[in-house]
Design a protein that fits this description.
With 101 residues, the chain is of the alpha+beta class. It has a domain of 63 residues. 52% of the residues lie in helices and 26% in strands. It has a two-stranded antiparallel ribbon with strand order 1-2. Strands 3-6 form a two-stranded parallel ribbon. A two-stranded antiparallel sheet has the order 4-5. Strand 1 and strand 2 form a beta hairpin. The longest helix is centred in the last third of the chain and has 21 residues. The chain is elongated.
Length: 101
Amino acid sequence: MTKAWGKKTNKLQKSEFGRVFGNIEQISREASIQAKEKKTADELVALMNQQLGRDAFISVFKDPVYGWNAKIFAPPSKASGLQAILDEIVRVLRSQYDLEE
């Protein structure tokens, strides 16, 4: 820790920065090497319905930011709650699967 204008601040030493940055690069390389399995939209919907424990009308679509996303169509009284649950399921599935075109 160093003092700057009477306050203590945390600063990474050059050696610490290199160690941290090196770990981030290694993790990034390992993640890019591990290819995700590709699933069709129908296969992803089946996995989501299995997790939801019901047959819901779900649409899977390409997303320019996340690769793919999903929307559930349900009565308005249930839609927001189900969509929130589906968003969590999608977050997990997206880390494991890519959308097959």
